[in-house]
Amino acid sequence: MDTTAAPLAPNVRVLLVDSGGARAADTRQDGIPKDFPADVVHVCTGTAPILGNPREDPTAAAHSLLAEPGVRAVVLLTPEGTLGSPAESGLVFGSLERCCEPDGADHIVALLLAAQHPPRARLAVVTGARGGLGASTFLLHLARAGHAGGKRVALVDADPAGGLGLLMGDGVLPGLRWADLPADEPAFRPERLVAALPAWLGMPVITGDGRGGVRSPGQLRPVLDALRAEHDLVLLDLPRGAVPPADATVMLMSGLDLRSAVAAEALAARLKGTSRTGRADPGDRAPTGSNPNPAEPRKVYTVIRRIGEDVTPDELALMTRTEIVAVLPHDRAVAQRIARGDDPTRGRGALRTQARAVAARLLGDNPHEEAQW
Fold first, then answer.
1. d(CA 120, CA 233)
2. C-beta of residue 166 within 8 angstroms of C-beta of residue 93
3. Which domain holds residue 131?
4. Total number of domains in the chain
5. Taking the model in full, what pTM does it have?
């Protein structure tokens, strides 16, 4: 991470609150733990880390710092487990012990960037109950609809094999692919990442190529965080069966054939983070993102592709325990454009109309602070 050109987080302060204990004898003269990367904090923010009074309420001390001129966010570091992670504007919580580990410098940089550039975009995931339903094509229509409505939209291909770029026709400009990004980068400067990515119809895209796609959830998380800081909507093309970020709105595409319906029933419970009985499954949590209400299941909605006649839309809604937000007819013109290698979102039709309705609901019903419909 390059921190020499300019401060990464000039409007952020780092507050350390340590009750003593094991670290009391392992501190510098100023009270900062010896293995804490204080020099990294100074380079990234332009100020030294602040040692809080252990007798004072840490959150109140952080709010006092927020009231100072020029301070937009505070990274509050406390002993492991002494504070939760409430969704408070301007506060980013972290573990002091974690920052004192050998790779603590990378961790503090990620926290500082998250504080300086908080995620503001709604994250919407599109995934299919099975292959061949057109989930990626629908995602492109959603992106085009949101962009046409004046919103800032970014697209992320989470398929390890890549491939979303192949659906976009010849309109994708040059830029970095997944293989060009380091697999272990803890955070990215949002403006630099966006400028380096290829663009499709003016929207940044991160996808794979012949070298492969995303290598791990750890590579995906910092990219999502950076894109969410610069956009209104980030659309994630998720492979079937993968676990989405905890604060994502999920759209599960299914046909009306029996194979799709049974798969959608099983996947809907997994995507919500619940068992089939509807109870929350704390062990099935996403490796990325942060849910302000982690005990609650994710919101999952179903998009129906009119393939098959084994079940009705109402029956599918009962099976998946989800709301149907769109019913997409088979569009022969879209299939022909894909076969020719053209942009599948060109032209008019029912698919574009439905995508506009879903995009409007994603972007218009609630302010961006609310993660789900």
1. 9
2. no
3. 122-364
4. 2
5. 0.80
